[in-house]
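When time allows, look over one protein, given below as sequence and tokens. The question is which stretches look regular and which look disordered:
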Amino acid sequence: MLITHPEKPLFPADGITKGDLAGYYEAVAPVMLPHVRGRPVTQERFPNGIGAKGFLQKNVEKGFPDFLRRVEAPKSDGVVNYPLIEDTRSLLWMANQNCITPHVWTARAPELYQPDICVVDLDPPDDDPAALRMAVLAVRDALGDLGLPSWVKTSGSKGYHVVVPLDAQLGYDEVAAFALAVGTLLVKNHPDRLTQEFSIADRRGRIFVDTGRNGYSATFAAPYAVRARPGAPVSAPCRWEEVEGGTVHPRSFALRTMAARLDTVGDLWSDLLQNPQSLAEPIARIAEQVSPAELRESELARRRRPKPRSAIA
């Protein structure tokens, strides 16, 4: 596919152009496509590079090629025509739109109401590798205690994404409620280190356990997606042993280093797709460990927003 203005700088300080971005996505397409195919995409676009303000685009109504598949997803006042990444051409078309990061749903078309993955996103307040490592391993262990193996990837930003593949038998409400309960249990066991408070001011230096990626139309950075940060870091699958040993951190991998990484380890999430899990038993088990009152407080914390400045004494 023709890339227009391949010389356009998208990461000016790093000398990375739109052509470089397109070349990266073309190279990683064989490992990326199985994880994103069928998932509605929100494009994070930077027409003037990451030094200028970007924007998110969900709806694609015009100006798209015939080969780009789309899916209609209902919203409160109509529908959104989300693009899908079905093949390398689709991925390159998005790169040509200056889409640095494709963010994807946890469900796939046509089963838009039945997620096939559950995501826990860890968002630390600062650079404390030891605290973050404790948190991500706590998520792994909590899920493991519920009988759920999990996979991990760097966010390419500040934290990690922990993912459980699902059998797509439940809807968003059930999956989101389960994820919230996992977060509640984690905060209950580590109240001084973890929190579910949405408001940064209320987190008081604790790591945010974000389970809000599991609702209808919520998204997370796609596996192997480039992030709009200096150095063009990549949200890349990694091994639990690498996280545990401290040899991997959230920005360990980047556009210019992923080729060597893939040559060495391949797709570390290749077995994720072959291991769908049922949540029936884990839901029953976690209900014995967190009370309805604790779940209600977690939901309130997740929904709390900062007070307006005029209301702050």
